[in-house]
Design a protein that fits this description.
alpha/beta; Rossmann fold; 6-stranded parallel beta sheet; helicase; 3'-5' DNA helicase activity; nuclease; ATP binding
Amino acid sequence: MHDPHCSAGELPMTTTAYEIADAIGKPPPTAEQVLVIESDPHTPSLVIAGAGSGKTETMANRVLWLVANGHAQPSDILGLTFTRKAAGELAERITQRLDQLADVGLAQRRSDDLLDQPTVSTYNSFASSIVSERSLLVGREPNSVIIDESTAWRLARSIVASSDDERLIGIDKGVNRITDLVLHLERSLRENVRSTEDVSAVVHDFERLLDLPISEKPGKKTPYAALVTAVRDVGALSPLLDLVERYSSEKRRRGFMEFSDQVALALEICRRSPSTVSDYRARYKYVLLDEYQDTSVVQTWLLSTLFSQQSVMAVGDPHQSIYGWRGASADNLDQFARQFAGGTCKTLSLLTSWRNAKRVLDAANRVVGPLSNAAASDQASEQAVVADAPGASAQDVQLLGPRPGAPDGTVSAYMAETITEEAAFLADWMAEQLATATTENPITAAVICRNRSTMPLFAEALTARGVPNRILGLGGLLSSSEVIDIVSMLRCIWFTDAGSALIRILTSPRWRLGVSDLAALHSAARWLSAHGGIGQQPLSDEQNEAKRHSLAPEDSVSLIDALDSVQDAPDNHPMLRGFSDAGLSRARDAARTIAAIRTRSSLGIADLVRIIEKELRLDLEVLAVTGYRKQTQQSVREALIHARRNLDALYDLIAHFLAVDEEGTLASFLAWIEHAEQQDSMAARPEAPDPNAVQLITAHGSKGLEWDVVAVPRLVEGEFPAASRTGDGWLRLGQLPDELKGDANSLPQLDWRNAETQQEFIESLAAYKQESKDHRGYEERRLMYVAVTRARDALLLTGSFWAGQTKPKGPSPFLLELADAGMIAALPEQSEYDENPIDPHSSADLWPADPLGARRPVVEAAAAAVVNQLRDAELRHSALNDGQQRDDGGQPVDDDIRARIPDNLLTDIDLLLAERAANQRRNTDLELPDRITASRFKDFVTGSQEVANSMRRPVPQKPFTQTRLGTQFHAWVEERYATPRGTADTLDASVFELDEEADENGSIVMGAEPNANRGSVAETSAFEQLKATFEASPWGGREPHEVEREIHIRFAGRTLICKIDAVYSSMIDGEEHFDVVDWKTGKVPRTDQERADRQLQLALYRIAYAEWKGVPTDRVSVALYYVGADTIIRPESLPGRAELEAMWIDAVTAPNSGWKRE
């Protein structure tokens, strides 16, 4: 049906859409598609395209028709959409069809010149190109950095936290909440092209409502509480606007931009530069605008400023307008004719669903029916509900009909008593649907949730049922077990109070500490709190009282501090009484590993995460959990990619963070992650449907995607549709007044300016709240329509009366409407129970969880098979060495065990054993590394073969220990000399040098994070003693000549890397001499061999520095300073370069050294 204001003109043409399709071997377009394809190329037009109606194909064919009939060259065409995925698909389809058109002689062949190609991009990318080309016209630099949501949040939070505006106290909100309000307000201003002055004027006028008479009738003498609250919240905009100004200024100072900034700046450029508008109009004569219902006000103003009265075709569906919360306006479709055509335009429709089966489409039409103004199509007239509902689009939107030959499909529903039963039913249904999948005909599936909070429950149910699944988006990534482990470890090494993260690590498959041992760790923390340290007597009452005043409660009972102390305490220490033998061993191993990783905290984040991945053995765990190969046809490479995808996605996330974060520190990364977890505001990562796993995604995130089977859970009152959160609308704290929004006419109206009394305002407010609630209901109905239309063939709709609440939730109105129409079976509307039947104590879970779970019998059988095979190989090897020959082929694997092992696992076992045998038969010596560190030199010359073995088959090594006290001291020394936090004792340090061992009394001071003020009383005292000792040392009053100097020299054909803590210079007999010093907080060497090991490294330091400085070695001295013992070690003699190189060559060329000879 055409818009009543529109008319269609007849155009002469030489090649029809039918002829083009026939020429390139494509199916003929439908009649409705022909109307769109052959629409007048010289005037604006609007296309209402329903879900799955083939709009991408039609838009591509529109381009072919324009080119084939000489209306346009490919370079004249601009296509805009919202996602890179959609832009890529449209661009690929257009270019392929243009080539096909040239092959049949209906168009000239395109050149390879990029300027001769059609332009297809996202709306934001298009705005960015304008800013890049023309920003200097408005005094802005073109090379701004685009920041994402969480980076913007961190920047805004720093502005809020540094503010001393006393008006913020009256808002009575935390820093994080105020930060959210500032960001929302700032973006609302940009999206609607408003200034802070515009808002301030509204605030000033609104505050005057308190001056109005209370009522025309006497009686009430105090202002209405609702008005007082509204004036207070609207008045709070004033300090927020000041923060918005500061935040915007800081973004500009740093060269940062958000997407909304780019679009607003592009609009400003176009409004101030007529030449820009004329240039773009000449460049792009034909414009296609996809998903137009999702554009924001500022985007439509930009596009209409550029292309009004030009050949613009906008394609959209008001029924899929679901992004109002992020600035999109469904009113844009209604305003298209006014903005682009001066009031009238041609309106066309695509009304055939090429995606949905009949019953799925019937359900979708029933859901969206109340929003339609038009009569139902013939195919869906029996089910359609036609209503002149408020909030529906002004466009004549008909209901979709099925494609010719569409299958019936299935729509099922289930209303359970409890959410646990609902999840189990959904998992069973999904398993049944996927059971018919084959390699040739895979089935894609999704669970579409209204919000992310319920996803883990349904994911667990799917996993328990044996159905592979994955939660999409950043929230899904951060909820995957391997990523949780990595983030928990990062928190453990940075925060001393990250007790929850530590418990996660200790109960992970790596250590599996039990509940009783965790309780013992807590008891150890309490013991330390009461005694002030491992080697201390109980604190006096006065000391405990002073401690309570100086430390927060969580600091006095730190599990991380306790774990450090458990590692160092002697076995008979009273704080260890509650540990089991196995638990104590595991706890100490965990402490050593965490301490070792902590010493690497100054590394780049990606490098640090790789260390954590290896130390926690997550690379092996993800392979084990995924079964390594689900199908024998799957290649090893595909299996690895599938198993590691969450880990690889985390590295991608880190790379993105580092690209936009100014600091790039571990602390800033953890803050960024924390915001993403709390807000879950990042868009889902675009991913194609995966036939290997059920994908869990939000309804908002599902738009633009489709699956063979779809389940939509939690269809209950208050959840889907969600309860209205708008409340008082724009009167809520931090909201842009509706009258300042570009789509104000389509929003509920609060008639506050015409109120003559406070009572009239209250009456207007009540009506406004009801309209806002209804408006929210329309948005939820559109969201449900999007969720339903994602299903091609099968749809399941579920709900349950009871979850965690005290009152039951009835079925969603959407379910009841479908049941009333006979599209699903009748559902119970009330629960059988008066009280929640879910007993929180009715079930017992094993915690910590068994890492193998249901796979334990299979894995144990596989392990037994490996043991048998290895024993067999060892027996045969022994027999051959004895000159004996076995003729029975070795002891076979027990048939019962073999029968329980899947064939693909037996294949892997055979491959591993074959590799082992091949390695035994051939020379497996390695190439020597090109780069060696001074700290590894000793390892090469004393244990060359061990080094080679560790590199040949890398496994997590036993980590060394360094207490936080040592790290804190080094950070203090580096800060004292005004240098950045260094790595002299972390990257280039041997195991022995970084060990902190107990003194002769068995006491070790608990560590502390660098620059942290959370240490124990004993730790603070020890740290102060170290500082005092250093100040009194020969170096305490001297300024170093060099600090943290890294030197690379050629050594025995290799690159030798030396990292030196400090170098001091002095004049002796008129010549400058240098003293190379390494700070040590560990134990002084006790044996001659330990001293000799130190001398090798110091000898290399001396040679490296002398050569780098260009002075003789006799002008370079070296020393080790053990600060805790106030002991200086200066070698009496050191080997020279020739002797050191000879030691190296002898070691790496010796027989069985493990290294290839050069």
